[in-house]
Design brief:
This protein has a single domain (13-352), classed as Glycosyltransferase (Alpha/alpha barrel), CATH 1.50.10. The chain is α+β, with helices and mostly antiparallel strands. The chain has helices spanning 13-24, 43-55, 59-72, 95-112, 115-133, 157-177, 182-197, 209-217, 223-232, 234-237, 255-267, 271-280, 309-323, 347-352, and strands at residues 82-84, 87-90, 93-94, 145-146, 155-156, 202-203, 238-239, 243-245, 252-254, 294-296, 301-302. It is globular, with a radius of gyration of 19 Å.
C-alpha cells in the first residue's frame, strides 16, 4: 500500500486524509463529485477529485467516481460540460474535459497496479480520446468545444496543454494493455509541436495564470524553454506568502491554480519554489480539511464564498508530487509517458512564433 501524501511542516498525512474525506463527503449517490454540496459537476474536476481520492487511499469512492464517468459517457465518447443532480445544464462538450478521463484512469492504474480496472475502463478512455482527436484542426491544435451550439473554430492553449498530457496518458494505458494506437501518437506529436512552437494558433488568454504555466504542466515544454516561460511572468502572478493570482489584473489568489503551479515547478525540478508555493496557499485551509477557492487579499475576503472539492484535490495531488508518496506522484513530470510522433522543427516554424 502506498503512503499517504504529506509535506513536512506544512501538510501532514492526517490532514491529507481529512481533506480527502471532505471530498468524499460531497460525493453524490451516483458517484458524481460536484464542486460543493448541491453544486454542479463537470467531467474534468470530477476526475481531479477521483485522482485525489486515489492518492489518499480512498479507493472505494474513487472507483465510484470512475464508474459514474463510465456510465454517463455519451455514445460518441463525450460528456456534457455541466450537470447538477444528474440533470444536464450545458449539453456541449469541452475536449479538455473529455480527454481528462485518460489522465485519471492512468493515474489510478499507476497507484493501484490494478490491471482489471485498466481493462474495465479502457473502452471509455478509447472512445473519449477518439472523440477528442476527431476535433484536431489542421495545424495540430484541437478545437475546444462542440455540441448543440456548434463546433468551436478556435483552440485554447490551456485546454490543449491539458489534452496533450491526457493523450500521452492514454498512450501509456494503451501500451500497458498491448493495444497500440498510432493515430493517437501522431495526434499527440502534432499537438505538442503546436503548443511548443506555434502560440499564434491559440486564442490569447494571457491575463489568466493557467495560460502561463499549463504548457509546462502538460509536458509540451521542458528544459530551458519551460524555465524561461515560468520566469517570464513569475512577478505578474506570484504574491509572496499567499500563492498566485488567478488573473494578472486582480488582487485575487486561488488555491487550485497555486497547487497546479506547484505541479509544474515540480515537473521541471524547481523544488525550492514548488515547496514555497505549496506552503503559501495554506491560509485557505478550513478546520474540516476543505479549502476555500480563493482570497481577495486587498480586503482579506474569501471569494467566491465557497469551499470547492477540486481545490482540496489539487492540494493532495501537489503534496503527492512533492513527497512521491504514491507511484502516481510523478504523473505530471511525464518522464515515463510516451511523447507521440514529434514533428520536425524547421525555419518556417520559427518564423510563425510570437
Amino acid at each position: 500500500m502506498s503512503d499517504v501524501p504529506s509535506v513536512p511542516g506544512v501538510f501532514t498525512a492526517d490532514q491529507c486524509l481529512q481533506t480527502a474525506r471532505s471530498i468524499a463527503a460531497t460525493q453524490e449517490p451516483t458517484g458524481a463529485i460536484p464542486w460543493s454540496v448541491g453544486g454542479h459537476t463537470d467531467p474534468w474536476d470530477h476526475i481531479e477529485n477521483a485522482m485525489a481520492l486515489t492518492a489518499a487511499g480512498l479507493l472505494e469512492p474513487a472507483r465510484a467516481a470512475f464508474e459514474w464517468s463510465r456510465r454517463t459517457q455519451r455514445p460518441e465518447g463525450s460528456w456534457p460540460i455541466q450537470l447538477r443532480n444528474g440533470v444536464i445544464e450545458d449539453a456541449n462538450s469541452d475536449t479538455n474535459f473529455c480527454a481528462y478521463i485518460a489522465t485519471g484512469v492512468w493515474h489510478h492504474v499507476l497507484v493501484t497496479g490494478d490491471r482489471r480496472f485498466a481493462e474495465h475502463m479502457w473502452p471509455t478512455v478509447a472512445k473519449a480520446i477518439d472523440f477528442v482527436i476527431g476535433l484536431q484542426l489542421g495545424d495540430g491544435q484541437i478545437a475546444w468545444a462542440t455540441g448543440p451550439s456548434g463546433t468551436a473554430e478556435e483552440a485554447l492553449l490551456t485546454g490543449c496543454a491539458s489534452v496533450h498530457h491526457s493523450i500521452r496518458c492514454a498512450l501509456a494505458l494503451a501500451d500497458y494493455l498491448g493495444a497500440p494506437q498510432p493515430e493517437w501518437e501522431v495526434a499527440a506529436g502534432r499537438l505538442g509541436h503546436a503548443i511548443a512552437r506555434h502560440r499564434d494558433l491559440f486564442v490569447a488568454k494571457d491575463r489568466w495564470s493557467m495560460e502561463w504555466y499549463y504548457p509546462v504542466l502538460g509536458g509540451a515544454l521542458r528544459g530551458p524553454q519551460a524555465h524561461d516561460r515560468i520566469d517570464e511572468r513569475w512577478d505578474d502572478f506570484v504574491v509572496a506568502g499567499l500563492g498566485i493570482r488567478c488573473v494578472d489584473d486582480r488582487p485575487w489568489v486561488t488555491g487550485a491554480e497555486t497547487c497546479e503551479l506547484v505541479l509544474a515547478l515540480d515537473a521541471i525540478g524547481d523544488q525550492e519554489r514548488a515547496h514555497e508555493q505549496f506552503a503559501a496557499m495554506h491560509h485557505l485551509r478550513e478546520d474540516d480539511g476543505s479549502y476555500w477557492t480563493g482570497l481577495v487579499y486587498s480586503d482579506g475576503k474569501r471569494w467566491p464564498v465557497e469551499r470547492t472539492t477540486w481545490t482540496g484535490a489539487a492540494v493532495i495531488l501537489a503534496a503527492d508530487a512533492l513527497s512521491s508518496a504514491t507511484p502516481g506522484g510523478g504523473l505530471f513530470r511525464g518522464t515515463d509517458l510516451p511523447r507521440g510522433l514529434e514533428a520536425e522543427y524547421d525555419c518556417e516554424c520559427a518564423s510563425r512564433q510570437r
